[in-house]
Amino acid sequence: MSAEKIKKLIRENDQLGNLLGVNLTEVSEGRAYAELKIEKQHLNAAGVAHGASIFALADIALAAASNSYGNVALLTNGNIQVFHATQLGDTLIAKAKEVSASRRLAHYRIKVTNSVGDQIAVYNATVYKTSAPLPDGE
């Protein structure tokens, strides 16, 4: 499935990503970049970006990267470490990259940085690769 079809499929069907305002900027086999501008609705009670917003951004980049081969891939395990707080107005960039893969499992590392390149978080995830093709979306 082409990168544009993956981006379109996620843009049209990932309801949480749409609600949060996540933008997929790049997709290729085993890789994806996604961005999120931190707005008021992304903040927690302490006034910094909610961990769930950061996790969701990273997870959407993972979804694009792991489904880029054209078959459904589903998260089996994900672990995020957040290193720095993110403020209102910051733009976060999640860069997903396949680290290793076998016939049924694939491992990804997603690095989340802000717009000046500071590392905000790292998300390590494992997906189960099914044999089911992604919906065509057309």
Q: Give the beta-strand count.
A: 6
Overall mean pLDDT: 95
Spatial ordering of strands, largest sheet: 1-2-4-5-6-3
Give helix % range.
10-25%
SS-based structural class? alpha+beta
Beta fraction: 35-45%
CATH hierarchy: architecture: Roll
Total helical elements: 3
CATH topology: Thiol Ester Dehydrase, Chain A
Order of helices and strands: HHEEHEEEE
- The CATH superfamily label reads Hotdog Thioesterase
For the record, what CATH class applies? Alpha Beta
Computed CA radius of gyration, to the nearest angstrom: 14 Å
- Report the span from N to C terminus: 12 Å
Task: Please tell me the total number of domains.
Answer: 1
Low-confidence stretches: none
Largest sheet geometry: 6 strands, antiparallel
Shape: globular
Q: What's the SSE blueprint?
A:
Blueprint: H1 3-13, H2 15-20, E1 23-28, E2 31-37, H3 51-66, E3 71-82, E4 91-101, E5 105-114, E6 119-133
Antiparallel strand pairs: 1-2, 2-4, 3-6, 4-5, 5-6
Keywords: Hydrolase
Organism: Pontiella desulfatans
Domain Thioesterase: 47-119
What would a concise description of this structure say?
The chain has 138 residues and is of the alpha+beta class. Helices cover 24% and strands 44% of the residues.
Describe this structure in words.
The relative contact order is 0.22. The protein has one domain: Hotdog Thioesterase (Thiol Ester Dehydrase, Chain A, Roll), CATH 3.10.129. The protein has helices at residues 3-13, 15-20, 51-66; strands at 23-28, 31-37, 71-82, 91-101, 105-114, 119-133. The longest helix is centred in the middle third of the chain and has 16 residues, at 51-66. The chain is 24% helix and 44% strand. The protein is of the alpha+beta class and 138 residues long. A hairpin with a 4-residue loop joins strand 5 (105-114) and strand 6 (119-133). It has three helices and six strands; from the N terminus they run ααββαββββ. The protein is globular and about 45 Å long. A six-stranded antiparallel sheet has the order 1-2-4-5-6-3. Residues 47-119 form the Thioesterase domain. It comes from Pontiella desulfatans. InterPro entries: Acyl-CoA_thioesterase_PaaI, HotDog_dom_sf, PAAI_dom, Thioestr_dom.
